[in-house]
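Reopening this ticket.

The earlier resolution said the output was attached, but the attachment link was broken on my side. Pasting everything inline this time so it's all in one place.
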Amino acid sequence: MNDLLALFKIHPARHMALSSYSKGMRQKILIIAALLHNPEVLIFDEPLSGLDVTTALIFRHLVEELSLSGKLILYSSHVLEVVEKLCSRVMILHQGKVVANDSVVQPRQLMQLPSLEEIFTQLAVREDPLETARDIAAAVMA
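Inline output:
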């Protein structure tokens, strides 16, 4: 535990109340808790939320290392660029239903789209995000 606290740069704060930790520090504690007993299966839900850029980069490399060592990792995120870089398979859900479940590369090839974000937009977004953003900006500036 102390080694992980030190590696995540929060060892000096180990005796502080968890309630006094920043969001990023609490996120690091959650990651440490997930890793602590060296499980064969890891589930990460929005693991980069609140992390600084350096820790996010470390975490992305950590996921790659754990995967290479044979760990099964379920990675849930709305940050599709990271999903695309880290994951070998992708499942896209829309309103609780699976709309895609394949390798990361396969949907791009089938739909001839360059990114998971564009695939998600085609499969799951029912409104025009640009139009909605323009409407919000117009409402703010009115």
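Reporter confirms the inline version is readable. The chain has two domains: 1-87, 90-142. The CA atoms of residues 42 and 73 lie 5 Å apart.
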